[in-house]
Design goal:
This is T9SS C-terminal target domain-containing protein. The protein is mainly β. It is built from six helices and 35 strands. The chain has one domain. The protein has a 17-stranded parallel β-sheet that branches. The protein is globular, with a radius of gyration of 21 Å. The N and C termini lie far apart (48 Å).
Length: 438
């Protein structure tokens, strides 16, 4: 690889980051995971359902906290209707009918819980397992890079032909609004569908930037926790906990901002299909996308990506630990003030990416904290990463490398009920100036 002309570029980067905040990983003056999250959902007993939700919701509908709902089959919110869910409402998804909830293009969901009264979607089984039900799908009218508009028809079990019109996504409205998800938990989703793989905890396809996604936790999902196809969406304070597949996956020209969010992986739960914390792609097959349209772009700030492995070396030797981040060709990533701890290695770049200054300026890592990883940044199928280490290891990027245990690195990860995954630096809790001023 040619020697990069770094001087001008690095001087500019240094000048713009001197005043940047040095706090890394998830931040907050308080532990924002308190109250609304649940890290032991198998120990929670919900009330028996008092109402059934099935078929299509074609007019404005409200779900009330006083009732517990049973979601049966593939339920679609259609006809520009709005589904409103009160704080504290519990919706149990039927295992037998492979239940799922889809907000069709033009419709909305207003699921706005509170910190002390979150909205919960979970399995109706007494013994719950990842993949018990389908999950939530948001479909919007924002653009993707696919030819024409997209469809998610293959994700449904025995889809009624009458519902094919309700599974399309994409258009020209980057500001389209699919509603609000705030203080919401999605548990045990990711049902496997024959011929289509696994569903996701939360799939957002063609979702526009007027949609609000904050404080959403996906736990024990058999598929991807958060998946984004096209659209333009900002996600804040998202949590993926012990997902079997990828925690955050972007594809088909998604334009996304992911901020102050957490992914906790377990090597003993992850699937054999190559699960990661973050996967950034622009396509699965080149022939399905229009290269005159935007490729996928992610700005990721203050993430904590943690592999919860008790014996990291043994788990790596057994093939149970993968990289935390994978970046595909024609996708861009700007990641900063993020902690990556305990992976094999931290980052892998697709081997179709031609490594050079132009490509690496589209894949940025700055103010990072790489901890206890078996290597940092590599090109796929290439064990020689000297050029990448020289590039990203330059002092102008302010990246930090460490070999500390998770217990030493984070505030309190051994608290099973209320863990605190904020970074411990010299026994000072990492905070964010915006939170202090709130």
């Amino acid at each position: 690889m040619k020697i990069f002309k770094l001087v001008t570029y690095l001087f500019f980067l240094a000048a713009t980051t001197v005043v940047a905040q040095q706090e890394k990983g998830i931040v907050g003056k308080n532990n924002w995971l308190d109250n609304w999250t649940e890290f032991k959902p198998s120990q929670i007993t919900y009330r028996e359902p008092t109402q059934i939700i099935s078929g299509n919701i074609s007019e404005d509908t409200k779900l009330n906290k006083r009732d517990t709902y049973l979601l049966v089959g593939s339920v679609f919110v259609t006809n520009n209707a709005t589904l409103t869910i009160e704080p504290g409402t519990v919706i149990l998804a039927d295992y037998t009918s492979k239940a799922s909830l889809t907000i069709s293009k033009g419709a909305k969901i207003i699921a706005e819980g509170t910190e002390t009264d979150p909205i919960v979607f979970s399995s109706n089984r007494s013994m719950k397992y990842p993949g018990d039900w389908g999950g939530i799908v948001l479909l919007g009218n924002a653009p993707s890079n696919k030819f024409g508009n997209g469809s998610v028809a293959n994700l449904y079990y025995q889809l009624n032909p009458a519902n094919y019109a309700h599974v399309n996504f994409g258009g020209d409205d980057v500001c389209s609004n699919s509603g609000v998800l705030k203080y919401v938990r999605i548990e045990y989703a990711g049902k496997r569908i024959r011929g289509a793989g696994y569903l996701n905890g939360l799939l957002m396809a063609g979702v526009g930037n007027e949609t609000s996604i904050n404080n959403v936790m996906v736990s024990y999902c058999a598929g991807d926790a958060f998946e984004i196809w096209g659209g333009e969406v900002s996600i804040n304070k998202a949590v993926s906990y012990k997902t079997s597949s990828t925690d955050f996956k972007l594809n088909y020209g998604a334009q996304c901002k992911l901020n102050n969010s957490l992914a906790i992986r377990s090597p003993y739960i992850s699937s054999s299909e190559g699960s990661r914390c973050l996967k950034v792609l622009s396509y699965d097959r080149k022939e399905e996308v229009d290269f005159s349209k935007k490729g996928t772009s992610l700005i990721a700030t203050n993430l904590t990506l943690l592999n919860d492995s008790e014996t990291l070396k043994d788990d790596i030797d057994k093939g149970l630990v993968n990289e935390a981040v994978f970046i595909g060709k024609d996708a861009s990533l700007d990641m900063k003030t993020t902690v990556i701890s305990g992976f094999n290695p931290a980052v892998i770049l697709d081997d179709d990416i031609v490594i050079g200054q132009e490509s690496l300026e589209q894949i940025q890592f700055s103010n990072m904290y790489f901890n206890n990883c078996n290597g940092n940044i590599f090109e796929e199928n290439n064990i020689n990463n000297d050029d990448l280490e020289n590039w990203y290891g330059n002092a102008a990027f302010f990246n930090v490398y460490s070999k500390s245990s998770n217990v030493e690195t984070f505030i309190d990860i051994q608290n099973e009920r209320r863990p605190d995954y904020r970074l411990r630096i010299n026994k000072i809790i990492a905070t964010n100036i915006d939170d202090i001023n709130d």
